[in-house]
Amino acid sequence: MDVARLSHLDGAGQARMVDVSGKAATAREATAAARVAMRAETLRLILSGDMPKGDVFAAARIAGIMAAKRTPELIPLCHPLPITAVSVTLAPEPDGSGVAIETTVRTTGQTGVEMEALTAASVAALTLYDMCKAVDRHMRIESLRVVHKAGGKSGDWDETGTDARPPDADRNGDRT
Q: Which of 19, 67, 68, 69 would be 116's cystine partner, CB 3.0–4.6 Å?
């Protein structure tokens, strides 16, 4: 493996934080998604407000926002970023089989916010699980992924296949 192609390793294969000091600060955004699969009865209890631990969606939303802000404390080599916005949306699936989670994080900075969006979605899903585990031990956290990113040198991308990067764009060292 060519370690020079891995942005978090130096030429000797040692871990390093990517130097972004020479990069321009630009508007950046990332959206991540996850799903918590559950029994229909569990979702009914959440929506009716009858879950023993309280308002599940409010707790998960706040936990996701807090997690985005704490990402560099959780993920080694992540840059601390001046996050300008975090949104966490929890949507019950129409068939009653689960909750879809979508998080969007924005900043104006020298590196992207995909890790912050993924961390927000992860912690929102974990909080939802924690709030409901007493009534549904069969819940599953599924499909954690980045679904969209915008800004930075590599441009826009989304999970449907849009990739606006020019063919010669530098993909090393750009956590976009």
A: 68
